[in-house]
Amino acid sequence: MKFGVVVFPGSCDDVDAQLACARVADTVALWHADHDLQGVDAVVIPGGFSYGDYLRAGAIARFAPIMTEVIDFAAAGGYVMGICNGFQVCCEAGLLPGALLTNSSLRFVFRQVSLDVVNPETAFTRALPTGASLSIPVKHTTGRYYAPPAELDRLEAAGQVVLRYGAGENPNGALRDIAGVINEQGNVFGLMPHPEHAVDRLRGSADGLGLFASLRDSVSSLVGGGR
Amino acid sequence: MKARVLVRPKEGILDPQGAAVERALGALGFAGVSHVRIGRLIELEVADPAALAQMCERLLANPLIEDYEVLLDGAS
């Protein structure tokens, strides 16, 4: 099993993302200027920055050469996880509903938050214990999740809201405390918090590991079930 | 042809920059200022102005969160 982590000019969490993936699968870096997914079974778009985030976060990266392959891979049912800037890229690419706006405080936030797992049945949360609350850091300036109210209703009804900030912990003004959403098909997941920074108790929390383990289990059952 | 594209946050979307500037104007003593919204101005030279709408939809604006308006300079 092989996971790929996209590296854009400006990515800064790509190494941590690779280390987190390497705990559950073989891991390779996917260079933004290549058109080659190297046969990976899942793609992680990491956090940090991309192409200077000119215009809007993720707006330029969304047209990077590797994204053509990532979008095709997702359309074919491949698993894609976008973390922070990766979430922004996925929204700009139309892989996920909604958009990320400047934090309502206008400030960079960097802190540990608790997250409620709203939907533990997804390909990205299946390995988590029922009713889990995760302690995972956020660090961003553009993390206020937005979608029109009718779309939010639809997402909630369809179980596409996967993670919410715990009560009173919303760091960015995200509508309905949304921290992570999944697409309708259930194979593309984006979240603002950084699970790759929470995979070892020496760094405060290992709660992020469950998301990577879930992805591993989901890929195994795909491979096992003959996709 | 010279063109300007004005990009604004959609009505109803919280614009914290606009709110901060509105408070700052009040603090400077400018009374009666409200509904401050901050957007973006993009100036460009374009051979085919008909392509501008596509440019806005695909890159210059995110239609989910922003409205855009195309102004052609020198159009008589």
Name the features.
heterodimer, A: 227 residues, alpha/beta, Rossmann fold, 9-stranded mixed beta sheet, two-stranded antiparallel sheet, 11 strands, B: 76 residues, alpha+beta, Mth169, Chain: A, 3-stranded antiparallel beta sheet, 3 strands, 28% helix, 28% strand, elongated
Task: Examine the coordinates and then state which fold CATH places here, giving the name of the CATH topology of chain A.
Answer: Rossmann fold
Order of helices and strands of chain B: EHEHE
Helix content of chain A: 10-25%
Structural class of chain B: alpha+beta
Mean of pLDDT of chain A? 96
Which structural category do the helix and sheet elements of chain A fall into?
alpha/beta
The end-to-end distance of chain B, rounded to whole angstroms, is 12 Å
What general form of chain A does the structure show?
globular
With strands numbered from the N-terminus, the spatial order across the biggest sheet of chain A is 2-1-3-4-11-10-9-6-7
Sequence of secondary-structure elements of chain A: EHEEHEHEEEEHEEEH
Report the CATH topology name of chain B. Answer: Mth169, Chain: A
CATH architecture assignment name of chain A: 3-Layer(aba) Sandwich
